[in-house]
Amino acid sequence: MGGYVQGVLVLLAINVISAYAAYLPIAAGQLNLGIAGFMAIGAYLSAYLTNELGVAVLPAILAASGLTGLLALVIAVPVLRTSGIYLALATFAVGQIVEATILNLRIVGGAAGYPVSHYVGLPMIAGCAFGVFVLVFVLFRMRFGLCITALHDDAAVADLLGVNVRAYQTAAFALGSAIAAVAGALYAHHFSYIEAQSFNVLLSIYIVLYVLLGGTQTIWGPLAGAAMFTLLPELLRVGAEWRYVAFAVILIATMAARPQGLVTAAPLRRLFAARRAAP
Amino acid sequence: MTESGTLLSIEGLSKHFGGLTVIEDLSFTVRRGARMALIGPNGAGKTTVFNLITGAYTADRGRILLDGGDITAVPSHRRVRHGVARSFQNIRLMAQLSALENVILGQQGGAHGLLGALQPVNLLPRNRWRAAARDALAAAGLADYADLTVAGLPYGIQKRIELARAVMAAPKLMLLDEPAAGLNPTETRALERQLAVIAETGVTLLLVEHDMQLIGSFCDRVVVLNFGRKIAEGTPTSVRQDAAVREAYLGTQAE
Amino acid sequence: MLLQQLINGFALGSIYALVAVAFTLSIGVLNFLNFSLPAIFMVGGVATWALLKAGAAWPLAVLGALGAGAVLSLVIERVTWRRMRGAPLFVPLVSSMAFLILLENLVLVQWGSDLQQVPSPFAEVNLRFFGLIVSLPQLVGLALSIAMVFGLDRLLRRTRIGRALRSIAESSDTALILGVDVASVVPAVFVISGLFTALGGVLFALTYRQVHPFMGQEVALKGISAMVVGGMGNVWGAILGGLLIGVAEVLSIRFLGADMVDIAVYGMLLAILFVRPTGLLGGLALGKGRV
User: Is residue C76 part of a domain?
Assistant: First the structure.
């Protein structure tokens, strides 16, 4: 497999993981505009563990993910007391603060960036992407997924039925952040160098945008969105900035014409399930 | 009447929103196995009473006792575990899910916590939760609709699915908010039969209703509210003849 | 020394205030967090630079930049808002984010990512009094932003269009029934907020004499913090919030170091969201807490 194709697949895999990281809170009705911050925490934690403490790569990534999830759990307590636009703004603020804090941490290089040892290649990254997909797939096929859908569609009734809305939202937020950490860590170990400035609000915006472009009604939407975002420029063969211009235009058009995104539930239901026609 | 015969006891319940008092010092009891109706003119506070019992609203004063236990301070998402279930005036099913999935949601009371969240309800093609939900739908005569998306289904069918969802929680007390609203006479009779079946299994029913015929033929006791206070209580017949009730509904011109 | 810092803080804060007013108007009237406003801020600054570099006199450059901001706002209203009837609430937010990306990258394509020096005619025009230095653009910025907020407040409270805006903020359905021509009043919201934020960009360009494609992200996003601190939907809150954030930024550079600025500014945002989300001037002046 050529180096160019490998490079594209690596990006695709990391974008898929990021997509599911954003998808979990969105499915529970929350917009996490600080998701890049959790990617950064995962990246820097994993890098530190392998650089300074000699931990092997896979345990480092998992540990970084777990620690980030725990941190997200702590942050979720006050943040999830807000809702709607306040929640989006709170997550945005968290992301900005994380980026600024890392910039000040001399121990991990500060503004100069941080080199990362222990390279990971496509097989590991693709494996992780597959693993994340399977995890989300299975989770949403359990009662967890049903409850998340319920609280997203009608939180008052879900609560009445016995769904602990706050607990589920917290779980979705923390799990999403842990998955974001995996994406960040893989990025760090593959490109062997990270800087806080690349984990900024723009990255969070891109991720949220391509997840919403793909569609959030089913678990296939984030996959479609990540694929679209990664592969479109390769198809168009245009320079970096034009790729984002094209992406933005497509997004604006999609939101105007088909706000539910590319992949929606109804056609999927017709395609996959053997449902009898209504009498 | 022994104490254990009382399932629900509302004691001195009060609720206001800002300066507006919606429920004022309300007290009544519901006997175990009863079919009770809560009636009153619009704005009397009937739906508010339901919301207080389910915990959607928190009472300002008073107590709510269910089966001897004080549930006044129990958070709303836990009340289903104490045996309260509710249906809604305008149907509130999850429109994009199938009838089966809606009924599976009704199992949440027994499926709370981490282990509950991990039940593979949609993962394994045959599992006990799907089976239980399918049985519940079959018992309500809705087996054919199990795998259909709720959104496209007729109003009457949706009402019955919502009822099946409420029954799935194996409640002790079922609160029904205008179950006959929007139903024609045939559908209302079918509803009455379904409610009778549910009552046979020992569930206590508390209905908010305007359909006096249904109340007359189905319910054994009626509580009348006006402006958030209880103004009468008794059998459907006695309440119909009560002067205070007539005044509330018809104005000062009592016949 | 501290007084000088305060003056610098107020001057910077007046720019934040302009952006905050733009955000707050949009949220208050339309319940819309308009993420394209930072992009219009950037366009205001970049257009000023481009026109000055092309040799235009400064009044023309300023008017051109403001015009660009107004036109962009109308385009965004057309494409983002007008089509959103009945769509879920996140849709306009997402669309506006896409506009941010679109405009940033278009500017990148056209002029590259470097910082550009603005050939300001007001360079070295400073006023000195009592040992304090204020540059002309700083002074103008401060005076102008307060004047404009005053004007906006007047508009909202005394004019027909202001009443229309306030009624839409309360309930656009009721406003429609009462005969308000919602469809033609809503663009006014976009144009007014666009002008405010574009002016912020113009003033930034003339005061600090540097523009770059990401200045919207780095500067104008702090306007969100200012808006929330002051109170969403309250235009005087936007001024208060803006000045507070400006002073906080300048003081944190002075005492904590330049790298701590974002922590201070966004820390304030987070703190307010946790402790008193309605902001300092609590309760909305426009609308009734629909957010």
Answer: yes
Q: Which of residues 258-277 of A touch C (CB under 8 A)?
A: 259
Domains of chain B in start order, with CATH, are 1-83+171-255 (3.40.50.300), 92-170 (no CATH)
Burial of B232 (0-12, 13-18, 19+ CB in 10 A): buried
**Helix (H, G, I), strand (E, B), or coil: what is residue A277?**
coil
Going by C-beta distance under 8 Å and a sequence separation of 6 or more, which residues neighbour residue C193? Answer: C21, C22, C23, C25, C26, C34, C37, C73
User: What residues form DSSP beta bridges with B36?
Assistant: B206, B221
pLDDT over threshold 70, residue B254: no
CA distance B8 to B15: 18
Q: What is the CA radius of gyration of chain C?
A: 18
Write the CATH number for C53. Answer: 1.10.3470
Burial A53-74 (b: 16+ CB within 10 A, else e): eebebbebbbbbbebbbebbbe
Rounded to an integer, the average pLDDT of B8-23 is: 91
More confident position, C282 or C91: C91
> Which amino acid makes up residue C243?
L
Does C281 reside within a domain?
Answer: no
Q: How far is CA B230 from CA A99, B17, B53, B119, B233, in A?
A: 60, 19, 16, 44, 8
Across the interface, which of A81, A104, A248 has its CB nearest the CB of C259? A104
Instruction: Please give the model's pTM, rounded to 2 decimal places.
Output: 0.90
Neighbours of B174 (CB within 10 A): 23
Q: Which residues in C lie closer than 8 A to residue A37 (C-beta atoms)?
A: none
Flag whether A69 is in a domain: yes
Contact C100/A at CB under 8 A = yes
8 A C-beta contact, residue B184 and residue B215: no
Judge whether A8 and A159 are in contact, CB under 8 Å.
Answer: no
In a domain, A214, yes or no: no
**A224 to each of A13, A219, A231, C163, how far by Cα in Å?**
12, 9, 10, 46
Chain B interface residues (partner A, CB cutoff 8 A): 54, 56, 76-78, 80-81, 86, 88, 92, 94-97, 101, 104-106, 108-109, 111-112, 116-123, 129, 144, 147-149, 152-153, 165, 169
How many domains would you assign to chain A? 1
Taking only the tens place, the pLDDT of each residue in A207-225 is 999 999 999 989 999 999 9
- Give me the pLDDT at residue C15, please: 94
Whether the Cβ atoms of residue A40 and residue A182 lie closer than 8 Å to each other: no
- Domain holding C189, by residue range, is 2-111+123-275
The interface predicted TM-score (ipTM) is 0.88
Residue-level pLDDT at A203: 95
- Name the residue of chain C whose CA is nearest to A103's CA: C259
Distance CA C86, CA C92 (A): 11
A278 contacts in B (CB within 8 Å)?
Answer: 148, 152-153
